[in-house]
Predict the 3D structure of the following.
Amino acid sequence: MQLRYAFRLCPEPGQRAALARAFGCARVVFNDAVRARQDAHAAKELYPSAAALSRQLITRAKNTPERSWLAEVSSVVLQQALRDVEVAYKNFFASLKGERKGPKAGAPRFRSRKDTRQAIRFTANARWKITEGGRLSLPKIGEVKVKWSRVLPAVPSSVTVILDGAGRYFASFVIDTDAETDRARWHEPEPGRAVGIDLGLTNFAVLSDGRKIDSPRFLRRAEKKLKKAQRELSRKEKGSKNREKARLKVARAHARVADARKEFHHQLSTQLIRENQAVAVEDLAVSGLARTRLAKSVHDAGWSQFVGMLQYKAQRYGRTFVKIGRFEPTSQTCFACGHRDGPKPLHVREWTCPACDTVHDRDHNAAINVKQAAGLAVSACGAPVRPGLVPAQREETGSHGIPTRTCAA
């Protein structure tokens, strides 16, 4: 499978200017391609092919006074901008036909130079490389310093240079990983080890084995600083340099929150995948919950990002990942006898089953029901009983454990 490894870049002032030119040229070519397709659609003509757009918008445009500055950047960057337009239209038409899963994709729109996020991509034929000194050598930009946090497991096939809203530069490398090599890094967990996860707000996650993971609430803890930075931004004159400085301050504050949340999700998901043969979660309606009075807390928890990490890490390392339906009555059913006691308001955290008199912690009971509903029975040899599921292999190196606490039985 393909994975992305992102590292922080520290370009010098001259390299920042060169990157700004590359971002601008890629944006112009992208917008020209979108406009050409829109004009063809308005005239009821066939869409121009990628080769025709390349000749018209890059090769010939470089020889005109209006677009001569396109020659100042790598042609691969411009070709990739055309490729992005092609992929965007492909996704748009597939979405219209119902062939594409997920939310409906809209038609490609023009990119603005005021967008806070800019990106360019270099493929292998751009002749970029990582130097012996550990710098990233990019055509017509130079050797950019990289803050390496780990070693790349394989030779990257492409690199994307990203400027985010907080003014930070990143190099995102695409790596083709080998499944057998990845699984060889992990020790095999105990046979039959499986866990059900109930996600929540008071506790970020409650596991079927009784452990409770406290919710860090990164956004709530940073709210005071964010409000102050936002007030300062609102008082600055639009278009002024002071307003841009205040905007960067707000963006960096939000970036710190997002980075802390992502790190927490990575550590917890890695721990759960390492320890278990199989993992089950509930398919929550996050988009619906994000429109309720709990919206801020739901966004702060970041359930979708966490579940996505569990899913791809399970696939990468040979674990079993099961997502049960959102309408499964996990909070209403007694895991001991199967009696369904009906819906309960959110303030009810404990309840007693009228059929067997078992006292339940609401979240712990739901986590056990998630595990049972997923059918995560595993045989003694370590192979899952459910058809089509993959036995676990080995253990990943590296992630720190997440502090947990055990609930009372």
Q: What stands out?
A: Residues 241-275 form the longest helix (35 residues). The first strand starts at residue 2 and ends at 10. Residues 94 and 100 are 5 Å apart (CA to CA).
